[in-house]
Design brief:
Layout (H helix, E strand, L loop, with lengths): L4 H15 L10 E2 L12 E3 L1 H4 L4 H17 L4 E6 L2 E6 L1 H14 L13 E6 L10 H19 L3 E8 L6 H19 L14 H14 L8 H27 L5 E4 H6 L2 H11 L3 E4 L2 E4 L10 E5 L2 E2 L1 H14 L4 E7 L3 H13 L7 E6 L2 E5 L2 E2 L9 H7 L2 H9 L7 E4 H4 L7 H20 L4 H5 L11 H22 L4 H22 L8 H25 L8
Parallel strand pairs: 5-6, 5-12, 6-7, 12-13, 14-16
Antiparallel strand pairs: 1-2, 2-4, 3-4, 8-9, 9-10, 10-11, 14-15
Helix pairs in contact: 1-3, 4-18, 4-20, 5-13, 5-18, 6-7, 6-8, 7-8, 10-11, 14-16, 16-19, 16-20, 18-19, 18-20, 19-20
Length: 556
């Protein structure tokens, strides 16, 4: 199996145990360093020396133990020290060995089983049905789909779930219904001051729902009781919003296995059953006509209401919803929320603990928003911002996927429309889409010149006739299993996007150097090794694009 940072962590643990068995080192950090920040060009590094305050003879002893451990356990890397960080570099033999594994594995190279047996529920997007899907919703949608594909690539059984906030009795639904009703009436009664009324939603989408009602129903609702009309328009708006959001998700290439209805949870009694369970266990306290959950006892900054004015709060529904997920046999639950929901994470986990649910099995990813720009100037959007459909009008879908997935969860995704629409490699999305075709072209130039015998020979661990650009490609191929696994373990599909771009840049460099060199004078063994390298890199490129749900460009 290819070496990974997990092997580095285990080696460090063994060496530290021999160095000082009495100390507790905690979780050891191991990461892939940026090339520009290290002269060693290592694959992995750790801050164990700084964390353990190791220096002098103790640090030298740690390095000796790590080198001995590598020999004992057949770990083909070199160990070095730079600016207080311990570095691990795959040696030439290991990189050749992994390339041979890739040659034999074919399309299966890089896929793993580290998550095999895990039943994972991923719930994301779950936007309020009060308008079209936002740009931030599009980012969450695309990143969530990439995360699901990444988890599946490493053996997890993933269920994609969308939670519909469709309870028509909620305050948001009431406000939506009242707003549509107000604009509906204004079509007949000529009210001009609605935009200045803070309680009335005035987005173009809300007005559009009202105009559609006028076209379909005429004046039918003018004389209807206000409550009846409000409820009817809330349902009309909810259905229109859900239809619009599903259409946007389909345009983005995002699918869900399950749509769970908030209204259904209430109607089926699951929310009331959870409230009864919490009350029976003494976790609810009645105050001023409301029921409060004692979340402050579990680290929350305050207790939280679960029932107010006789109606369950959103937190009550959320607890019941998580209980419903666990009842379906999921051992791991991942929620992707907007960054605005960060304050809700602690209270939700505290509430789950009080409900007797496994809060540690629930992971919440908070995703920042999107900042689309044209010529460096922010693109203005109505209401809560630019919609997903507006983004898709400006940027091709596959390019949009790269720009929305690549930034870290905690960073705003900046989409420069002028860059994202270029058909050249200054556009990173274009570069990664071009990657499989480029590698196919380079491989095709060799296939006719490599005889069958050379092509079927395994790559020797001692093979050395690599050009500098080929060495860069070989290193990335060898790193892919670790990068992909680390991305899955850390729930970071962003790593795959960045790795794909790094691979694309390496392939472009290789193309330039090949055109400038005398490739045709190389021996059969060298040509066969290069062919295997290009084919392996193409497998990695295809896997990365599949995870990102980006279609490759068929023609170079």
């Amino acid at each position: 199996m290819p070496l990974t940072r997990l092997d580095v962590r285990r080696s460090l643990e063994r060496a530290l145990q021999k160095l000082d068995a009495s100390s507790t080192w905690g979780e050891l950090e191991v990461w892939r360093p940026r090339a520009e920040k290290s002269q060693l060009r290592s694959e992995w590094c750790s801050n164990v020396a700084l964390k353990g305050k190791l220096s002098g003879s103790r640090l030298e002893r740690l390095l000796e133990l790590l080198k001995a451990d590598a020999l004992t356990n057949g770990l083909s890397w070199n160990v070095g020290l730079e600016r207080g960080f311990v570095h691990f570099s795959m040696n030439e033999q290991e990189q050749n060995r992994v390339l041979e594994q890739a040659r034999r594995a074919g399309e299966g190279f890089g896929r793993g089983e580290s998550l095999k047996g895990q039943r994972v529920n991923v719930e994301w997007v779950s936007a309020d049905p009060s308008g079209p899907l936002s740009a931030q919703g599009a980012r969450i949608a695309l990143s969530g789909e990439a995360l699901c594909r990444l988890l599946e690539a490493h053996g997890a059984q993933v269920t994609r779930e969308y939670f519909q906030n469709d309870d028509l009795s909620s305050s948001k639904a009431r406000a939506l219904g009242e707003s549509v009703l107000a604009w509906y009436r204004s079509a007949f009664e000529g009210e001009d001051d609605l935009e200045e009324n803070p309680s009335i939603l005035s987005s173009e989408w809300v007005r559009g729902v009202a105009r559609e009602a006028v076209r379909e129903d005429g004046s039918r609702w003018l004389l209807a009781p206000s409550e009846e009309a409000r409820a009817q328009f809330a349902q009309r708006a909810r259905d229109a919003a859900l239809a619009a959001q599903r259409a946007s998700l389909a345009a983005l290439g995002v699918r869900f296995d399950v749509y769970t209805s908030e209204a259904a949870l209430l109607e089926q009694g699951l929310v009331q059953a959870m409230l009864d369970r919490l009350k029976a266990s003494g976790q609810l306290e009645e105050r001023s006509g409301s029921s409060w959950l004692k979340t402050s006892a579990r680290g929350d900054e305050a207790d939280r209401p679960l029932v107010r004015r006789g109606r369950p709060t959103y937190l009550a529904t959320d607890i019941a919803y998580h209980g419903y997920k666990f009842s379906r046999g999921f051992g791991r639950i991942i929620n992707i929320w907007t960054s605005q929901h960060r304050p809700y994470v602690a209270r939700t986990k505290a509430a789950l603990e009080l409900a007797g649910l496994d809060a540690k099995a629930v992971q919440v990813l908070a995703c920042e928003g999107v900042r689309p720009r044209r010529d460096g100037i922010a693109i203005a959007g109505e209401g809560s911002g630019v919609s997903a459909d507006q983004l898709l009008e400006d940027v091709p879908g596959d390019a949009l996927k790269y720009f929305l997935i690549a930034p870290s969860w905690e960073d705003v995704a900046v989409v420069e429309v002028e860059v994202a629409t270029r058909d050249d490699e200054s556009n990173p999305a274009y570069a990664i889409q071009l990657l499989p075709s480029r590698l196919t072209m380079l491989a095709s130039e060799l296939e006719a010149r490599v005889d069958f015998a050379a092509r079927t020979q395994p790559i020797s661990e001692e093979f050395e006739a690599w050009t500098p650009s080929e060495k860069t490609l070989r290193r990335l191929v060898a790193l892919w299993p670790d990068e992909s696994q680390a991305a899955a373990q850390n729930l970071e599909p962003q790593r795959v996007a960045r790795f794909a771009l790094e691979l694309a840049q390496a392939a472009r460099t290789d193309l330039s150097s090949t055109r400038a060199s005398t490739t045709f004078e190389r021996h059969q063994e060298e040509l066969a090794a290069r062919l295997a390298l290009l084919q392996a890199a193409r497998v990695v490129a295809r896997q990365a694009l599949h995870i990102l749900n980006i279609a490759p460009r068929e023609q170079f």
